[in-house]
Amino acid sequence: MTTTPDPFLDPVLDPVLDPVARRDIDTAAARIAGDVRVTPLLTLGGAALGLDPSLTLLLKLEQLQVGGSFKARGMFNRLRAQAERGALPAAGAIVASGGNAGIAVAAAARALGVACEVFVPELASAAKRAALVALGARVTVGGATYADALQAARQRQHETGALWMHAYDQPEVVAGAGTLAREFEQQAGGLPDRLLVSVGGGGLVAGIAAWCASRCWIDALEPVGAPTLHAARAAGAPVDVAVSGLAADALGARRLGDIAWAVSQQHVQAVHLLADAAIAEAQALLWRELRLLVEPAAALPLAALRQGVVRPAPGERVGLVICGANLALKDLELP
């Protein structure tokens, strides 16, 4: 199918409200093209997953990305950008992560031949820790929660001078995440009517929203045990939240990122909370019906549809971002 170039241009941007522009995402896509995979876009009728048959479901299978999640896009973009500027320190890169961002940084660091240290919280899964070690990262447990690991990693960065890699709140990281939406639009011949996106610290939804720039409806989805965006909207600014639940190792940020807050105010239309039981049911359904093994964080889009939390109009084209699959098979109880 031949499509005409997208005529949408960036408006005049406010650097506070629009910290990441579509041109930044174009630049990121060109920069990381040799490092990341073009992940498949699976098209299904709604009936395939027990939904309204008139719906068209477009599943972006980002669990097949380098490192097992969308995070590779942002981390490769940041490291490659630093390398272009000749600004990679001898100490390498450092990040705090529940697992997926750390895996992505480790993969990018190995590709660029630099050292990598990852601070993880105690709740980081054994599977994610093992993946970090296999990629050559130095792994340090930085406390009980992601916030604890973040503080410990910051302290180490001040001591070593390593390149600071934030899991979700740096412009280059967010622009890299935005390449997912850019790729989706190219594959689908246009944006869907709505996109369903899981939220932790907000880097993914910020990148997607920055690319879409209100050209489609975006539903942001969070577990009830980690409601960073929901709480920020209620308070009028990012605030700390208590973190718990099934998806806490991937969506376990205590506070929404500043970039995500700025972008989401402009371009994210709705925020929804989902219970752990609904997330687990959707995770099992993705395996049972499609043989897709994904981590809980990746199942929120389907859970929102199955529970009726998100109700598309008949005939809508609905995009589901399946964001990652770093999980241990032994921990699954899927039929």
Distance between the termini: 39 Å
Order of helices and strands: HEEHEHEHEHEHEHEHHEHHE
Quote the average pLDDT.
Answer: 90
CATH class of the largest domain: Alpha Beta
What fraction of the residues are assigned to beta strands by DSSP?
5-15%
Indicate how many domains the architecture comprises: 2
In the CATH hierarchy, the third-tier topology of the largest domain is known as: Rossmann fold
Give the low-pLDDT segments: 1-16
Biggest sheet, in brief?
Answer: 6 strands, mixed
Q: From the 3D coordinates, which CATH architecture of the largest domain would you assign?
A: 3-Layer(aba) Sandwich
How would you write the strand order of the largest sheet? 1-2-10-7-8-9
- Cα shape: globular
Radius of gyration: 18 Å
Structural class: alpha/beta
The proportion of residues forming helix, as a percent range, comes to: 25-40%
- By oligomeric state, this entry counts as single chain
